[in-house]
Structure formats: structure tokens, C-alpha cells
UniProtKB/TrEMBL annotation, chains A, B, C, D:
Catalytic reaction list: N-acetyl-L-glutamate 5-semialdehyde + phosphate + NADP(+) = N-acetyl-L-glutamyl 5-phosphate + NADPH + H(+)
UniProtKB keywords: Amino-acid biosynthesis, Arginine biosynthesis, Cytoplasm, NADP, Oxidoreductase
Annotated organism of origin: Saliniramus fredricksonii
Origin: domain of life: Bacteria
Record keyword Cytoplasm present: yes
Name of this chain's protein: N-acetyl-gamma-glutamyl-phosphate reductase
Function: Catalyzes the NADPH-dependent reduction of N-acetyl-5-glutamyl phosphate to yield N-acetyl-L-glutamate 5-semialdehyde.
Main location: cytoplasm
Pfam families in UniProt: Semialdhyde_dh, Semialdhyde_dhC_1
Amino acid sequence: MSIRVGIVGISGFGGGEALRLIAGHPHFELVYAAGEGSAGSRLIDHFPGLPGKLAELVIERWDPVALPEIDVLFASLPTGASADALARVSRDVKIVDIGGDHRYVDGWTYGLADVWPDEIKGQTRVANPGCFPVATQIALAPLLVNGLIEPGNIVVDAKTGISGAGRGGGGGFSFAANNENLVPYGLLRHVHMPEMTTTIERLSGASAAGLVFAPHLVPMTRGILVTMYCRGSATTDQCLDAARRFYNNSAFVRVIDKPPQTKWASGSNLAFVSYAADPERNLVIALGVVDNLGKGAAGQAVQNANLMCGLAETAGLEGLPIWP
Amino acid sequence: MSIRVGIVGISGFGGGEALRLIAGHPHFELVYAAGEGSAGSRLIDHFPGLPGKLAELVIERWDPVALPEIDVLFASLPTGASADALARVSRDVKIVDIGGDHRYVDGWTYGLADVWPDEIKGQTRVANPGCFPVATQIALAPLLVNGLIEPGNIVVDAKTGISGAGRGGGGGFSFAANNENLVPYGLLRHVHMPEMTTTIERLSGASAAGLVFAPHLVPMTRGILVTMYCRGSATTDQCLDAARRFYNNSAFVRVIDKPPQTKWASGSNLAFVSYAADPERNLVIALGVVDNLGKGAAGQAVQNANLMCGLAETAGLEGLPIWP
Amino acid sequence: MSIRVGIVGISGFGGGEALRLIAGHPHFELVYAAGEGSAGSRLIDHFPGLPGKLAELVIERWDPVALPEIDVLFASLPTGASADALARVSRDVKIVDIGGDHRYVDGWTYGLADVWPDEIKGQTRVANPGCFPVATQIALAPLLVNGLIEPGNIVVDAKTGISGAGRGGGGGFSFAANNENLVPYGLLRHVHMPEMTTTIERLSGASAAGLVFAPHLVPMTRGILVTMYCRGSATTDQCLDAARRFYNNSAFVRVIDKPPQTKWASGSNLAFVSYAADPERNLVIALGVVDNLGKGAAGQAVQNANLMCGLAETAGLEGLPIWP
Amino acid sequence: MSIRVGIVGISGFGGGEALRLIAGHPHFELVYAAGEGSAGSRLIDHFPGLPGKLAELVIERWDPVALPEIDVLFASLPTGASADALARVSRDVKIVDIGGDHRYVDGWTYGLADVWPDEIKGQTRVANPGCFPVATQIALAPLLVNGLIEPGNIVVDAKTGISGAGRGGGGGFSFAANNENLVPYGLLRHVHMPEMTTTIERLSGASAAGLVFAPHLVPMTRGILVTMYCRGSATTDQCLDAARRFYNNSAFVRVIDKPPQTKWASGSNLAFVSYAADPERNLVIALGVVDNLGKGAAGQAVQNANLMCGLAETAGLEGLPIWP
């Protein structure tokens, strides 16, 4: 079975990772690529390793009402730039929006595929979670649904590689300024907070208004680690057991009993979660690791598209992480 | 005035940074260098840029009862290796212990030079704070002495460059395994916790038993950032004002109103602190940045030695950070 | 068709990359893993992302006369450690030696798969080229066989990522000492020189005694670039054309008209070659890029094994490079 | 003695490094800073560690005919942007042009301070060498003046950290695209070639038309290494001896008998040179290391200004390199 897919935002980091995954997918065939500045060039001009026919595909100027015949569209557009345009795409085309405009928006399913895969099956409009939220939510979900932590008292200290800032980063994301540097930013007002609050409340049934979120830029290209400080009286083993049960059938979430490192997930769709608790201090530390471009963007998007199309969830996503 | 100084542990990262600072110090003259594996070699064999006479100084085998005539000894030995040996050094020699064996030990002053400089003046035995604690304590001190946060409810998420692991790091600290990687470790049981707890209690007069400390290895050579989550109803401005008053006469602590980056301190003895508060959520975030080998080790040690010797606190420490 | 394969040296970087590729191979099934220090542990203890049955495979102590029933053995042992042992392996087992002991040794085929694939088909003992030589030889081959450069007057300035030093690197390869550092080494006496000289002479039919080789350690984990300065009167286009003809049927060698970057090959079995010539100065610059663990080690080894087993050369090697 | 100095181009990397060095200089006092985009802001807004009065200095809009009373101007402007403007500065102001517009231009002295310091003493217009040329020329000078290599047959393989691209680098110099990447560029047509050719011809008295120059971007912030392949029959010891005699009185050039690493010079005005020769192959390899922002830009500029002002050459430049 061949499913015809397109990518808009192909020259960005998320779009490029989607291209890499789709090129190795057993059922998806890339027939359409679109962009803005890159329109008119061929894929090989941006991805020098591409083989054969794919290399010669010409990037088209993005126009939501002039799409070729495709079954699935991966949209990797800057947040704020996709809402109007995607509304004009034919309902016959399934869309996964990797960008931020449709998270918890009416008419769109929030695609937290490892937590609620059944909700995504057969949908035609799915919003991919943000990179920070996906790591956070996967690690917290087993604790929240089992009542092991207080949903209103969670601190998320998040660390991300710099590709999270996107290709069009500008001088603030130059090598010289970021190498040998660690940069906190966006304290108390990050754009990802409402999304996380909504998910926590949905999973726990209680308010998450106390959520604290502090992101940091780490001098590496890929990878996200979230270190979360929660209140609860569970032991480390109780947390691990809850997660193992929760992710018993998961192809992508690994529950482990030591602190996970970001490189363990690099280039893959895997997520690692772990926990360290101290009941005497009413403390549960939860850790989540993903590749921000894999499970945090394009990997998650392909996983969602697999579910939407009735394919095996793992199709095209079985590549192991790159080490070292 | 020339003060004769020695360094033991010269071939480690802390000892090497002490050498760099002492070589540029207006009053200190390095006349003695000692080590273990490096004994018998010259300084130039380890530090290829050294000029003139200093280059030819031969490293001696460390023997605490066979020291030449020196006024100050900088001891940069692995934790656990210095207590017995330093007890045998003549009382005529002032000692700054950069290692971990004498922090809050009877007969030794805890050298938190930016917080209690007067206690250090004229002392002969000073224990340098650990690299994580110095960043933590400098940022928290103004909040604790002014009662702006609860001392029993502090979470410290700490991030360090890899030189903090020391030169003899072994395969776990290889470039290939650490580049593009972010590694949490030592959750709930780091060796630096008792030191921080003691300082917090001393500054606040209340128990700090609830302290949570989680360190992370960041793929950079130098730099520490601590992000601290505290409970309190102060505003951001109240926190900044308290810190500005507290460090009004400080030569090295910079209080700023935006999140500090580790590279701002690189190669210097500076510390940067900042705060972001949300009274509605009873939340105060405190940030502290140091160079782990500067203010976190050798810079702080020279600052302590200056105070012990009655010199200007800033002697030899006025070099600006390296940027970029 | 399932071909049973084993890896010895599984915990090293080359062995680990072989594991990653074999796990995604359509015909190879890993049934045996061996090591020294790692014997007795499971694969999951070293590769946290491994799925299912593979994760639980126990690493055995390497014993060449006690192998289970396997068809192919990938040997990734330190140079000097494999010759005696591999001589004792049953002739029924095909061997690809990723280590350095059998390059241009009687009874072994030198596995330069992109240049002479036909020589490798059906063999049972194949020596993988070294990482520097494979990049060098792939870029030079079209020039040498077409007589476009003087074989006796070639300068190879080679740059490698630090994983080339292997997992057991020691303090000399620590992050702190190598980050922000560029290190030339082994000038005029690198162990890879005889191998390159032999290949150049074989391809050109003339002496390569004038070969100059200078390697450099670059602060990155993966990747090799060789910049070669040759004498010849060809134009840039003549060089590119010769290479395009030479690699016309190649699945892995990309001939391009701009300088290739190491990251273009990262995680893949691709090689990139390019040329810039100035006939007025009798100068041809040849450039070659590979991933030292891909085409420079495990990727090349799988390619050789495919040829030895009569499989499609590309089986298990179609993954695109990781970008960024 | 206080000498009043100004910097134009203060917010660039070269200007910032000049600021750092001048702040620690015993005789220079910074009284004027100018820029384009940064005009109107204070120095502290760009350099958060600056102390006291310097921190509050307001950056002015660059206007060559409206300078305050200064003795020395350091000009760090983009190549192409400084020629007209600097021609309009009063002759009473000494100028060191760190940019590229006045190298080997009439009326300007080429400031290769370690090779011909006497030519610079007392001058009022000095052009700082480029970062690649300064490393190249310092390493080659002893060989050229002693006739140990053929001046017409030199290959320069140059590797630089990414700060060499300047602060306004744009997306091509982003962290994500450059980390874990090694990038050759500008083959056969780099802007620095004429400058090197002129110096080689001046030192040797013969044509350098055969010069080959190939630059590479290395994923590190600071540092330059040039590896040069020359023709000559000298031994390694003859080359080292020639260099030791040539730099006998040099404060900054270190001649060593092992390959130098870029980090040895980091943050300093040092240059390291070494040689490895093979008379049987008529080969001399010359190696040169500098910090591209130190000896390759601002350090060299301060050294030139010291000579122009009749100060000790080393004033303000005695800081040792940062290690690690």
C-alpha cells in the first residue's frame, strides 16, 4: 500500500526530519514538498544525501488550495503562520500539524500518541504536541492518572538542544554565542505552558494552575531533558511500577531505573522516563528524555499519521538511536 | 610586597586555574608546586604557554612535612585525600583547601568570601566552598537573610560543565560520550548537600531539611548555572532590591534583572544572580551563575587568600570574562 | 532469508554501530555478541533503546573456538588483538574484520567495497579499510585510475571526530581537554599510511612513496574530512566527470560540485567527494567526507557482508543522514 | 601615564576582545566606544561583567570626524567598510585597523608585530594582519628568511573556530548547523591570499605565486591552526633551531617540539609554532596556532598599539591562556 504524503515547511529542521523518516517509511511516499524561501529549488539542494527520484523533487511555493493529490500533509510552519492556511486545505487530506497553532483547538485532536493512541486513530486533523510538552506529559502521565503526585504543585525544569529554536534562529543562536554557554529564558511565561496545564488537568481531573516551567538552552543540537519536582508520598518503585504498567504496550516509551541521558534518544522516536522519590520529604522527581526533532516533532508526527491511516504505529519509526 | 605561595595538585583543573591566577597576581609569587603523577616534570610540560622562570619550575612530590618556606598553600586534592596530610602542615603556613575535606570542619573557616568576608580576614585555615554550593549560596543569601523565602522548601536544579568532574575523569567523561549529551546524576544523594544545608540554616536560622538538589552534566567545559525554585510571596523587584543591598559593596557579585548565562562568567571570578517571582503562586525563582573553576574553585581560593593575607580582595582577580 | 550474525567487540563504538545497523537489516539476525569487560551483561545495559528480544541478549566472553552457529562474524577488536584469534575461527563462518590486523594480508580481501565490489562478492575473509583510508581512497580512486594526478606526490590533511579514538580513550580524549580544541597528531608516522600507499599504487600502477599524511582531532564526535593536495593539470570539471563515471552505479558515493561537510554523512553509509583544480598551478584539491563509524567502520562492514552473502549491496544501509 | 583610547566596532567579537584587553591594560584608558546598531546603548548591555565606570559608557554612533580627544583608535569594522571613514580621522590620532582594508596599502604599516616590531614603533597608521595570515606568517617566517623552504610551493591547510565569521554570522553559522560539523570553504579564492603572498615574497625575495590556501570551519568558538606543507631538505631540528633563533627575544611566540593544540593559546596573545620534516621526501611540515581573536585580532592590535606608543610590547598582554 502506498500512501501519498506532502510536507510543507520542508527546509526547516522539523520538516527535514519528517523527510528523513518518510524516506524510510514502508508505506508513505513523498510526492509534494513546499516552502517559502526554498520554493523552486530541489530537495537535493538542501539534503545532499538524498537518493534518486526524491533528490530531484522540486519544492513548490506553499498554497493550501493548490495541493496535488495527497493523502496526508505534514505541516511544519512557524507558530502563528498555519491556522488560516490549514483551514483551507481540503477535508480529504489528513493533516498533522507539527506547528503550534492547533493544540487543544476545536476540530483538532491533540496527538499525544503514547498516552491516548486510540483517540487519534482515524482522525483527519491532529495537532502534534510541542517538544517540551511531549517530554513532560509522557513522564507525568502515569503519576497523574494514578494519583501519585499533586497536580497543582509541579515544577518543570526543562533543558533543550538548540535545534529547538528552528533553522531561522538568527544571531542569538549562533555557534559562537551558544557554544560553552547555558542560557535560561522565558521564565514564567513560556508559550508551551497552557498546553501542559490542559493536559495535566485532563489526566488528573484537578487544577494545574501552580505549574512552574523554566526552559534552558543547552549547547547541543538535539535532545530534551525535563527534570520535574513534584509533591507526593509514593516511593521510587511505586512510580516506576505505575509507569511500567501504563506503558506496558508502548513501542516507544522506555521506563528505566536510572537517570536517562538525552543522547539515548538521539535520532529516534523513543522517550525515556524515570523517577526518584523520597517519601520522607514528600518528593517525587520525574525525568523525561526525548529527541526534540524525533518524539518532540517529526517522529511523533509520523506516529500520529500512522494511527490516522490505520497503519502499525511503528511503521517507519523503528530506527535505533545514534550512539555515540 | 611579595608573598610566597605553593600549590599542591597542580596538574588538576583546579590547580591549573590557581596557577593561571597566581601568575598574574601582583603580590603572590609561586615558588612551590607539588603533585603525584606529575612529580619530576616541569610546569611547562603541563602548561605550554608559561613564560620564563615559572615554566622551568619542577613539580615536587607532595610531602606536607617537607615544604619549602612559603606563606600560603593552595591545596587542590581529591576529596578524601587531604585531611590527614593538611593536618601535618606547619601552622605558619596559611592554607586554602580547594578540596572538600574541611568544609564546616572545626578549626577551619568556611570561605564563602562574598557573603561573610570579615570572617575570613586573618584566618590561617580556610575551606573553599564546593562549586555547586558557592553558586547556590550566593544567589540564596540575600533572600534568606531577609526572610523572603522559606528555608525548608528549596529545590536546586544544578547544571555544570564537565571540567567539574576533574582531569582524571575516565571514560565516563570522554568527549564522544558527553558531546551532544545531557546527563542527570546523583539525584537525592549528592556529596554537596550537607554543605548547602548548613549554610542555609546558618543564614536563615531555620531548618533546611527539605532541600532538594539535582545536578546535571552539560556538554560544555566550564560554567555552572543553578536554577532554584523557592516558596515566598516577594516580588521580583523585592528580591532584586534585597540582593543589590546585600552585594552593594561586592566586587564580584553582579545582580541583574534578566536571566544570566554561564558564559558571562567564563574565566573570571564573577558571580551573577537574578530572580523571577510570581507572588500569586507563592513562587520565587533564583538563578546563580559562576565559572566552576573560577568563583567555584580557584578564583574563590585566591579571593580567600587575599582576605587571609590582608590584601585587597580583588588583587589578581580583575580579569574580565572571555567572550565569546 | 535470515542470516545469523555475531559481533565481537560489541561495547566499542564500532561494534555498537554495527549493532544499530544489523538491528535494522532485513536479512541479518544478531544471535551472538561478545566482548571482554562487558561479558555477562545484557545488551540493554549498554544500549538503553534496544527493543524486545535483542535487549536481553547476554554478552559472552569472546572465545573464537566456542562460537554458536553463525554465518557471519563482525570483528571489532583493537588493532593487534585480532589476528591470532580470528585465525582460529571456523572457515564456515564469514568474517569481516573491522579492526586493523588483516588489511592487505594474505588470505584476506581488502574490502574497499565502493571501488572494487566484485572482488568482495562471495569471499569469506574480508578486511575493512581504516576510517582515514576509506575516505582518502574513495576520493582519489577516479583521479588515479584516469591518470589525472601524480600518484607519488599526494598530501593528505585529515580531520576526524573524536569517536575515532575508540571508547577506551582515556584522559587524553576527555571532554574538557578536547572541547574547544583542535589537535594535530601522528605527523609523518600514522599507522594508516602503508594501507593508503598500497591502494594508491594498486590503482595507479606507480609508486606512492611520496605520500604525506597528517591527521587532526576535531572537537566533534563523528565525521571525517580529508583535504588532499595533488599535482595534475586536469580541470575541476574533468575531475568531477571522472568521478561521476567511476561512481555511476554506486549506491553510496555522491559526487558533488561544492565542498562537502562532514555532517552530510552523519549516521549513514554515504561518502561525498568533490574536487577543485587550478591547472595553471598544476593543482588538484580532492575532498572526501564519511562518517568514521559509518562508511569508515560499521557501514562499510555491513556493505562488505552484503556482498559476501550475495545480498543487495544496500540492504540495511538505506538510512539517510541525521540533519542537523 | 594614561593613554586615551577608543574602539569602533565595539559590539563585534574583535571589538569586544579589544575592550577586554584594554580594560586590563596598565596604560590605556577606554574613553570612547562607537558602533552602528549598538549606538545609544551602554557597554554593560553587551558585556554584563564590566565593572564600574566602564559599564556605564554609552556607545556612540560612529562618525570619524566627530571623535572626542583620543590618542589611539582601534577600528574593528567589516572589511570594505573602513577605508573611506578612516581616511577622515585626524592625523593626531593613531589608528590600528583590525579590519581588512589597509593591509599592504600605501601610507599604512603592515603590523606583523612578532616578525618586524621595529617597523611599527612610532607609526600612526598600522594595519593588523588577518587572522589566518598571522598564524601562517609567524610559522613560515623563520623558514623563509633562512631559505629552508621553497617560497613558491607552499600549501596552507587552515582550520578556524567559528568566531572568525564575526558576530553577524547569520543562519550559516548557527549552532545547530555547525555543531558536529566540519566545513571546508573558499577553496582557491580566499580573500586572505594576496596578503600572505605579499608577506612570503617580502620575507623570501622570491615569487609565492604557487601558494595554495584552503580554509575550514571547525566546531569550536576560538582558535586557528594552520598546517603547512612545504618543500625543502632541512631536518626537523634545523627548522626548530631557526625558529628559536628568530624568536629568541619574542615575548609571545613559543617554539616547541611537538604539535601545538589550539587551546594552548585560548584567550591569550601567544602564538605556537612547530615543525616536522622528512628530508628524504624533501618535506617540511610547519604548524602555527593562535587564538583568532587574540593574536589573530585584538591581541595583535594591542601589541601594535604598544609599539606605536613606545610602551613595553607586553603591556596588557601578559594574561595566560585559559585551560581547559
